[in-house]
Amino acid sequence: MVPRVWSLMRFLIKGSVAGGAVYLVYDQELLGPSDKSQAVLQKAEEVVPPALYQFSQYVCEQTGLKIPQLPAPPKFNFHIRDSWNSGIIKVMSALSAAPSKACEYSREGWDYLKERIK
Known about the structure:
Strand content: under 5%
Number of strands: 0
Helix content: over 70%
Radius of gyration: 26 Å
Order of helices and strands: HHHH
């Protein structure tokens, strides 16, 4: 009986974390336009390191453990806005052009076969 309850608890915890992640992504509009996504990313870069430091200090106070100071994250000179959705845009444009290209290529192939048979 206990293993089933433990298994159910693990499933519920994992489902809650996954649901929270999906809600956070939707709420912060991470899958929206790239300028909003970049703004959220910059906000996270400003907020997360101090929050991690505060949490580590809290854990140190509560447990008496010494947690070493983490190094600062590296700074990248890469604008995610420029390439955020470029891969998706290229794939979708290729998929939207695929039927017309397939028709064009099959017509060219058929014309080539007609010339070779004559």
